[in-house]
Amino acid sequence: MTGPTGPGALPEPDLVERPHGLTVERAMKASPEAVYRAWTEGFDTWFAEPGTVRMRAAVDEPFVFVTRHENRVHPHYGRFLELEPSRLVRLTWVTGAMGTGGAETVVTVELEPAPDGGTRLRLTHTGFYDRAGAERHEQAWADHVLPHLDDVLTANARG
Fold first, then answer.
1. CATH of the domain spanning 20-158
2. Mean pLDDT on 67-74
3. What CDD domains does the entry give (predicted)?
């Protein structure tokens, strides 16, 4: 489901003035189908505060959810730009001062089946104002968020 292009379609974010980004790759134990569902239907099982997600997996649909970190509430906003079941999730990502600084960044999650039944995940996050913001997010995605997603999906598969 590629994004709409006709009249009334929302434009792509303009990243020209925000050239900083990152790429993280990870071998996930779960199948591409399970990883895709986690990004489109199950955000409150691995990322967001349970009960705070307002999300419908459709191109150009806005979403909002809340996370908590160090006793502070952090709202996240965005919309889906592209969806290809079990292959691709592309969305905008907007957070506050300690996140994207209010910039509409773009997260692209590419999924490939791995020979062991798992998934090769490649996450690209672009559109940061500065290198420091991109580096903070790279560390978070690589060291905390994606390992946590892998752990949650593995535990769910075991039942």
1. 3.30.530.20
2. 88
3. SRPBCC_CalC_Aha1-like
Could you state, in order of their start, the residue ranges of all structural domains in the chain?
20-158
Radius of gyration of the chain (CA): 15
Q: Encoding tokens for residue 43?
A: 């955000």
- CA-to-CA separations, 68 to 26, 73, 92, in angstroms, rounded: 24, 5, 20
Q: What pLDDT score was predicted for residue 69?
A: 82
Tens of pLDDT, residues 88-98: 999 999 998 87
Q: Which spans in 41-80 are helix H?
A: 43-46
pLDDT tens-digit map of 99-108: 898 999 999 9
| C-alpha torsion angle, residues 14, 11, 80, 48 (rounded to 10) | 50
Which residue(s) pair with 63 in the sheet?
78
Please state, in angstroms and rounded to a whole number, the distance separating the CA atoms of residues 42 and 39: 6
Cβ-count burial of 119 within 10 angstroms (0-12 exposed, 13-18 middle, 19+ buried)?
buried
- Burial state string for 76-110 with b = 16 or more CB within 10 A and e = fewer than 16: bbbbbbebeebebbbbbbbbeeebbeebbbbbbbb
Q: What count of Cα atoms within 13 Å lies in the side-chain half-sphere of residue 80?
A: 22
